[in-house]
Amino acid sequence: MSQERKILKILCFLLVVCAVACVVLGVTALLGSGSAAADLQAWSLGLGVWGVAEGALGLLLSGAGIRGANTPRRAGAVKVPGVVVAVLAAAGAAASAARPDGPDVATLVAAVAALALAVGCVVLSGKVDEQAQR
């Protein structure tokens, strides 16, 4: 197994942890949105939906990346979900930082971690895909 495939697999396992954290943060935000102040309810709902969506897509990306690391011919399937997860993570980080009462640190950290892991998965999947075509 090449170094790129090993690193891709490690990043995907780390992304599973990050995706679970995003889902937990999202569900927590959704459940707590009713008790939030009136001006923060929309932010809480938005970040809750973001967390659940980000986590679900992160788990799909992780599965595709692990399959791509095991079977290099399938590494190309990581690119599209990886880009979607990266865009969602960037949007989540921006929304978390723009909250009226200050940034939500946990959501911001999860979003930045998901962004870094998604970009890493996309880059490495390209390298693994190139190796498979040789």
Structure commentary:
With 134 residues, the chain is mainly alpha-helical. It has four helices and no strands. α1 runs antiparallel to α4. It starts with a helix and ends with a helix.
Mean pLDDT: 88
The coarse overall form would be elongated
Unreliable parts: none
Structural class given helices, strands, pairing? mainly alpha
- Largest sheet, if any? none
Query: How many strands appear in the DSSP assignment?
Result: 0
Please give the radius of gyration in angstroms: 16 Å
How much helical structure, as a percent, in the residues? over 70%
N-to-C series of helices and strands:
HHHH
How many helices? The count is 4
Could you tell me how far the N terminus lies from the C terminus, measured between alpha carbons in angstroms? 15 Å
Q: How much strand?
A: under 5%
